[in-house]
Hints:
Layout: E1 9-13, H1 17-29, E2 40-45, H2 47-60, E3 66-70, H3 86-92, E4 94-98, E5 101-107, E6 112-117, E7 120-125, E8 131-137, E9 140-148, E10 150-154, H4 162-165, E11 177-183, E12 194-197, E13 202-206, E14 214-218, E15 221-223, E16 226-233, E17 239-243, H5 249-255
Parallel strand pairs: 1-2, 2-3, 3-17
Antiparallel strand pairs: 4-17, 5-6, 5-16, 7-10, 7-14, 8-9, 8-13, 10-11, 11-12, 13-16, 14-15
Amino acid sequence: MTANADKATALLASPAEAAQAAEALLREHYDFVALEEAEQVVALGGDGFLLQTLHEMLHRGKLCPVFGMNRGTIGFLLNEWRLDGLRERLNNARSFSVAPLKMEAVTVRGERLTNPAINEVSLLRETRQTAWIQVSVNGRTVLPELVCDGVLVATPAGSTAYNLSAQGPILPLGSNLVALTPISPFRPRRWRGALVPDDLKILFRVLDPVKRPVSAVADQLEVRDVETVQVEVDRSQALTLLFDPEHALDERIAMEQFAV
């Protein structure tokens, strides 16, 4: 679905003061509809609010293109804030499809939970003791025992976030890869991660989930005391992000490789 200023457009804003002020200004100058009637969405806030908006769409099962404007801090996934020219910006926006990850976690109590992740799925130790995690790709054990603080799987859109902080690689949009990145690995000593085709399933098995408990986090959604976690790309729920041509997401991600 492409952007169009003539389409029914909803306006959402984070509770932050800057976002609320921007929302008031936009409502004075443009007409918006309720979210339930919208064909596209303008979101005001930071990266966290944009992820929250996308997660709510996934939960509702109604996916609309989202044009975000930065009224937060970093705003990597957002366009610049401007009051003027919104209709023209929507008409000229470039669209990017972002397929989320699907995390299927089984806890030590036997609970099964499924959550989407747009940036990354991360496994993290819950106590002072390191986690012991077995890693398999498409049914093949590739790391019998990873001793670490944690490990994560990142999408291209999320590769410049937590993944980059953990020394993981930046993935261009359209690379058809996910990053498998350890967090403070102790054993194996020389393993620093891998690039995995995004049509494969990654399975994490916590080797001692009682003594060395591990949590699994899909973006901001945490599941405690997991025993196994399976991660795969869910193309059936692809999301659409809209960007001004001069600030398109693919170029931003590529340029992050040269940031100093």
